[in-house]
Amino acid sequence: MKKLIFAAALTLASPLLWAFSTAELAQTLQKPANVQGAFTQQRYLKSLTQPMTTNGQFVLIPKRGLLWHMQKPFENRLRVRADGIMQWNGKSWVAANPSKMNGQSQQIRLFLDLLGGNTQGLEKQFDLQLSGSQQKWTLRLNPKTALMKQIFNHIEISGDSVVRRIELNEKQGDRTVMQFNQVQTGKELDAFAKQAL
Amino acid sequence: MNPKPRHLYTAFMLLLCLFLAYMLAAKNWLQTDLTALLPQEQQPDVVLQAADEANEAQLNTQVVLLAGSADAEKAFQAAAEIADLWRKSGVFAEVDSSISPDLEQVRGDMQRLGLAVLPHEQRQQLFEDPQQYFQQRAEAAVNPFAAPSPLSLEQDWLGFGRFVSARAQPQSRLQWNADNGMLFTEDEAGKTWVWLRGKLPQTNNIANGSEGLLPLLQQSREQAAKAGVETLSAGGAVYAAASKAAASKESRLMSAAGLLLTFTLLLWVFRSVRVFWLVVPLAAGMLTGLAAALAVFGEVHILTIVIGTSLVGMLVDFPLHWLAPSVFRPSENNRALTDGIGWQAEAAMREVRPTFIISLLITVAGYALLWFTPLPVLRQTAVFSGFALLGAFGATLLWLPPLFERYQAKPVPFGGWMGRLHHVSNRVKARLHRRGWWIVGALLLVVGLWRSDWRDDIRQWVSISPVMLAEAQQINQLSGSDFGGQYLVVEADSEDALLHKNAEVNRALQPFIAQQKLAGVQSLDQFIAPVAEQQKLQNRLRELAKLPEAWQPMREIGVPRNTVRNALNQAAEARPLTLSDGLKPILAEAWRPLYLGQVESGRYASIIRLNGLHDAAAVQTGIKNLAGVHWADKRSHLNELFHHTRNQAAWLKLASYVLAWLLLWRMFGTKRGTQVLAVPLAAAVATVAVLGWLGVPISLFAMFGLLLVSAIGVDYAVYAVAAKHSAPARLGGMLLAALTTGISFVLLGMSSTPAVAAFGLTVAVGVVFNLWLAAWLLEKE
Question: Whole domain around residue B334: which residue ranges?
Fold first, then answer.
């Protein structure tokens, strides 16, 4: 009997049992119909003492698209969808880049996957290490494809029911940190976001 | 017969065999390169020649294969496997399947190229609205979704590097898969097509270097098909290899079928296995022809062999004229002693020898004149055919009589039939000899001649299967480029001037693009700016360094003033890149083929590619007034050359008629001589009329067929007039000769190469007329 209790205790304590899988994480993150809130992006460059900081509002509809509304230091609205990245010129959406660039779609997919918690997509390019619990998790991404290895050292995402923080450690030594606050899920979208996404 | 010439001839043939054995063993004697057929230019312009060579080199050494599937992973997998197969095969000098860029090198190249290849729009912005430029630059810098540039922000404060990779890739539809480094495109149906490129060794002759190419492609495609992946492939070398394979298969098949049919006919007529000896003059003729062509040219083109093979029919004409009378019974003919049972090999040969010599002289002279045409294939065929006839003649004259010494002519139905046929033909002749029929004939002739279409098209020379063409088209569609054989060559006296000229032509072509007469162009000015322009931009950057408000947005995102100022000054001090410098980096590889370099001292040249050209004439007039711009259209240029050669051959032939007439006049007098010559001449004219009715263009090859027709005509006519056999026997000899000739040329008429088919058809039709007209010359009984 003692043995049995001991075995049961062992089983219950086993990290395997408690492990929070990436599939579960994906499920959690993809649950809400939409996620909106404020963001702060800080870009740390080796040669600059101060990070380059921008902030604004965002709206994410998992698997659909993202509205990235930068307010400081200047206004800039971007719409990111699988079909490309567009910029709001005050009247309509126009292509954000004057010339089409190689790797653009890759980058878009990466960000939509990162924010939307599409761990399946991320697994194609990164080795995923998930730690913590459902309430406070950290996902570390180590690049495994040649291209991602050339760009990133590693990427770290953390959060709870939503993504709270993304840190990109670039190969060149630069680092970008994005933090998300005042995050709300499932709230009605405003007219602009509805029309854009 | 005196045995001496026989021994001499035998010894000579033995020597020839030795020579041939040596040549075939020691040398690469079979030429299959289609371009080898083309005439040498009279006075080539080095610039155009360089452009042509660059184009050919690119076209003929590249083999492209696309693996496509709705399942992208499968397509990549199949392409990777095929690339592996290609590498192991050793067929290719280089196989490009995946690109894994050396990032350090790419960074260096981008920094060096950045300013020189900055798009026009951005350059203009820096002059007119620098604030806008830097606003966009700042937005891109903080945009987390922007495509990762190999250059970090610190390596590219001014943002010039952002445009380099797009500028370096003129074919923008091709995408790069970062995972495996492969290039791919997606079609409208969502299918992924993975691109694979094999480069054949440059030094190798296209066709010789690719013996293993077709089997390798076949294997690759089967392998992909097993995995459920579609494949497309294209490349000059593939076409060359395919047409080579088709030509040799066809030539094998035709010789086999020709020999089989011919000997079946002969066996049926003569009822003696001895007719197989007729193979002797045939073989002797072929050997002599081949040896002569090899001795003169050092190699023989596959097309010469194909046409040469068709000579089989003609080479047996002499022996048939000699042998045919043997089957006629003397009872049916009282006048001619040499007919029928009394037939004796040596004696019969002595009798026909003079007529043989006359027609041989005339025919060989006709071929000899072809030597003066500028077309290698025509000259080769002239040498091959002329000598083959001589060799066959020698063998007929010297070897056949001893071989047929104990030949016992049997009374066979053929002899009797000929008597009846001759009777019928006489009646028909009498019937037709009326004014009404003459008018109908003349009308048919005139309309046919009027309808005849004298035209040459290089495309008739090659048989590219429709499947291959469709694949090439699909590949063009997928790549978004459709470069035909027409392009522009631009020249100027310096690299900078050349870039200016390119830009000028580009501007001149814009209206045509707007009118959809042209889908687009690819020119070097789309890649790099002239040095002078770069210096102007550098001066502007120096100015901007002193105007911080112009780059205010950069400061807003947190880039210190000094950093931007230093970046501006640094860019302003860098050494500008010349065109050739700009093309050196690996990144610029795609643009290199456009630049021909300094072709001659003081002449720099480049190519402008025309994409999707719909109205060549309009574009051609559009650039007419621009100095230093050449319109290059190899196909129409070649067609012109063929046209010229064809006319030249026609005039040479007419000249040969005059010579022939002189000879015939010496032998037969004015009336008979003229009659004899009228046969080939009338047959040639009638053949042109028939081709006109059939809608077959009179190309160089058809003209070549006409030359052969007239040679055969002379042969028949001389035989009909001069041989000492009875009229039915002569008719029989001619009919047999016509049938054997007809067999091989009808077979040739079924060739998949349009030019060869036209040749076969022309001769086949011509032979019918020759027979008919020569029969007309046979006197009534």
Answer: 271-461+636-777
